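Quarterly update from the structural biology core.
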Amino acid sequence: MADLSNLETQTATVRTYQGVVVASGGTLAVNVNGRVIPARWADPIIASVGDTVRVEISSGATGQGQAFVTSRLTNLPRPGTGKVKTNTPGTIITVTGTDGIDYPCTFLASYTPTAGDNVALDWRASQGNVLGKVGVIAPPTPAGGGVTPPPAQPQTGTSVYAASDSATFGSFGWDRWAGGGGNIYQGSYGAGPLYGAWFYSGSPRELAGRTINRVQFTLGARRTVGSYNSPVAVHFYGHTSPTRPGADVARVAGPFDVTIPPGWAGGVVDLPTSFGAALQSGGGISITGEPYAGFLGRYQSPSSGTLSLDWTR
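Predicted structure, tokenized:
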């Protein structure tokens, strides 16, 4: 059998920082803790000098580092609509968003700004742009002497969320077991119990108020640790944390057990719809409990932790 003793030390380390966009050599770079770093950028992303951004910096076994700008950062989410406050001559008007904040905005040539208009907003980096007035369609007049039309059919859909982070917590802290790298473990192996978790930065909150009809979850490939040549019962839970907390996550749904065979190369498993409430509140998925087993996290397998949620409203 091949020697697998060094596999755990070859994983990449990915750390997340807050940076500021700066001009450097005729292009844009990021300043992280006083250091100007060239970077790759998520597509699409529109950023200007001075913008605050989220930066992932990775380094592999060779020590070569790489910065990746994933998104801009704001204190509050941008509003989708607002009300025109001023319409003085010029190319910039003031719009009060649904969050109560006044924003200077450009507007399309096809729209004539009028104070009091309810308008739809589009955002390009920190600049708002008015697309036009929010339309309202009057209900049709019932035909045939006031016959009531049938009720509207419920809306259905499927929303997919990639994990924004994955890690394992133990007595040593987050992501320090077996070389780190964002991989996921459950059980114990000489250092106390392990608690694996996937995080989504709160993205499934947008489904609040909808009924979750199906929860599908992508579990990464099985790692060659523990009794990896035997089937293993994986104990799934729903937890409440959008990002890594200071200690272990709070599990509020589960356990739900799924038996994973040896040689698992990664794939989709169905989880209970009761997990939907934890996800809609901004939480994620966790595994813990015996026996000891490990799986690739999102940094080694980008699909690891992907959620597909069928919903109705």
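The first helix runs from residue 143 to 146.
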